[in-house]
Amino acid sequence: MENILFVNACVRPESRTMQLAEYILDRLCGQVAEVNLEQEQIQPLNRERLEERDAVLAAGQDDAEILRYANQFKNADTIVIAAPYWDLSFPAIVKNYLESVTVCGVTFKYSPDGIPIGLCKAKRLIYVMTAGGPVFSPDYGFDYVKALAQNFYGIQDVKCFKAENLDIIGADVQKILNETQKEIDMGL
Ligand SMILES: Cc1cc2nc3c(=O)[nH]c(=O)nc-3n(C[C@H](O)[C@H](O)[C@H](O)COP(=O)(O)O)c2cc1C
Questions:
Q1: Which of 35, 90, 119, 123 is the most buried (most CB within 10 A)?
Q2: Could you tell me which residues come within 8 angstroms of residue 27 by beta carbon, excluding any fewer than 6 positions away?
Q3: 86, 130, 177: residue to mutate for ligand 1 pocket, most atoms within 8 A of CB
């Protein structure tokens, strides 16, 4: 059975992004492990945490607590990330998570000539988002995750499903979400 890692950055109880994420998860076949970033409260790397991480890596302590998210990410078969579009990007909790996952020696390594080589098992990463207005290009949220996935983690199949313009006055929110659900039906 597929191991699906659901990285949930939907902080609002009435989150529309979460509605779409649930729609996707219902259509995937496998066992879902959720990382709820609102609850996890992952701290950004500071000097102390970076030194701790470097020390466990140097000591070969692969199962150290500080590598928990990286190990879980590395071993997932499919990764679903759900995040609202905030400030042309995603909530800062997603950045903290990606920082804890992007670990040289766990989720990627460098070749002798300095090329990153992915060490993740996952074949695909699905990103789902909703936005109050239009999503501009570059999208500093999804495009960044895609660059990490393809360049570092070695996950080439990266898809984004999004619903835009939900906060525009007069927007038919349910209709827009339904359209995105159709795109999910076609593209998943
Ligand atoms: C802190 C914050 C920042 C936001 N920044 C943007 C933005 O840059 N562009 C945009 O179109 N909408 C922005 N929005 C609106 C959200 O993208 C929109 O309401 C989205 O649907 C929220 O997702 P949710 O319903 O899953 O919480 C922002 C909302 C919040 C709360």
A1: 90
A2: 184, 185, 188
A3: 86
Of 5, 185, 163, 180, which Cα lies nearest the Cα of 81? 5
Pocket lined around ligand 1, Cβ cut-off 6 Å = 10, 12, 15-18, 84-88, 130-133, 166-167
DSSP code at position 132: S
* Mean pLDDT value of segment 15-36: 98
CB 5 within 8 A of CB 37: no
Domain count, the chain: 1
* Range(s) of the domain holding residue 43: 3-187
Q: Work out the average pLDDT over 59-86.
A: 98
Ligand 1, atom 17: closest residue by C-alpha = 131
pLDDT value of residue 82: 99
Share in percent of the chain as helix, strand, coil (round to 5): 40, 20, 40
Ligand 1 geometric centre to CA of 48 (Å): 33
When pLDDT is cut at 50, 70 and 90, the band that residue 81 belongs to is very high
pLDDT digits (tens, 9 = 90+) for 101-130: 999 999 999 999 999 999 999 999 999 999
Atom of ligand 1 nearest to the CA of 165: 11
> What letter would DSSP give residue 66?
G
Q: Is the dihedral of CA 89, 9, 67, 124 positive or negative?
A: negative
Q: What is the CATH number of the domain that holds 180?
A: 3.40.50.360
